[in-house]
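B., you asked whether I could sanity-check this one before it goes into the benchmark set. Here's the sequence:
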Amino acid sequence: MVSLIESSLICNYNDGIFKFFFDVESNKLYLTENIPPEFILLMDNTLKYEYEVVYLKSVEKCPVCGSDLNKNGTDELLLNKVREIRKQKYVCTNKNCREHIRVCLNKFIDKHCNYTKSFREFGLNTSLIGYFSYEKKVDFYGMDI
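And here's what the prediction gave me:
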């Protein structure tokens, strides 16, 4: 029997050490909320086949009562308007609490925005040189539409 999570790696990326999992059977890459979305671009260039990206919480405990969390679906996000990723939703197991929590990527992506902070900064820097539409910036940045 093949393990669900066949590949588990520890990487050093931008002076941060993190762990991620790749589920070979369902072609899903599981990342924790402390891994920058730019890592997905690196994986896209490394893996030459389609896979789904799912962000998970690094600690699956309720911030309100401290109980365990159950997975409760996912939210879709179109990263830089070209790459679909999913953010895991959770519900608290404590029947008195029932808190609903989502993976938060505010460290990398502002609320109600699809573009990463680093991509927007890149966009501002290229605008200092000359005018580029965001579509051209995405091409220049190395992402396929």
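One thing to flag: The chain has a mean pLDDT of 77. Otherwise nothing jumped out at me.
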